[in-house]
Amino acid sequence: MRLDAGLVFLSDSRTNAGVDAISTARKMTVFEEPGDRVVVLMTAGNLAISQSVRQCLAEARDEKRSLWTARDMFEAATIVGEAVRAVHKRDAHALREAGIDFNVSMIFGGQIRGERTRLFNIYAAGNFVESTPENCYFQIGEAKYGKPIIDRVVSPSLPLGEAAKCALISMDSTLKSNISVGLPLDLLVYEADSLRVTRFASIDEKNAYFRMIRDTWGQRLRQVFGEISNPEWDASQPAEFPLARDEADRWGQPVRARRDR
Fold this sequence. Notes:
Layout: E1 2-3, E2 6-11, E3 14-16, E4 23-24, E5 28-33, E6 37-45, H1 47-59, H2 73-97, E7 104-112, E8 118-122, E9 128-130, H3 147-153, H4 160-177, E10 185-191, E11 199-203, H5 208-227
Antiparallel strand pairs: 1-2, 2-10, 3-4, 5-6, 6-7, 7-8, 8-9, 10-11
Helix pairs in contact: 1-2, 3-4, 4-5
């Protein structure tokens, strides 16, 4: 999430899931030069591809063109895209021969001294889009279960603490509904213009705050669900929020198939 107050990054660590095959690996990498830049890379898709891209970026530290020398975040995002294309050039043919798609996506964001915070979604072709005030967050990987709470709550003016809470609730919804997402989680909250990492947490099943989120959110959902009125089916009776419509409405009844006699 890119907010007026800064950035919020959250990733899980499950890379494979099945009846007897569950593995974990960190999906968040931080490139930090305190006082000059903090940039964060999160990955989804084929683990071998994403690890190769990350290694290419890390090994370029002493080169003239790298994440540590980029003049701004746009150039840094371009460097990440170039690393994706370099791995594609090296591995794509062999993967295709093995029947494996070149599947990787990335969220990349942060701040370089002299400019504002920025956030990008980088695709498997190495191209990318940048967040806007109208679309101030990105999700990659398994997104559908956690998306509704973010859509309803997040806007650029949201304080960082509330945004972190929303991200954790969103992730908990995904954990609840999909086995391909799992603990531990990595949460990084970056305050704009700080140019250093000050708020980072690795969250497992024993984390007191996340357990509170999980218990409280489930209880409050059931509470709100119980407070919403049941549907009223009798259109002839007055109701504040009627569900059934007048039978004279041609859209008020289903299409009926009748047997001729």
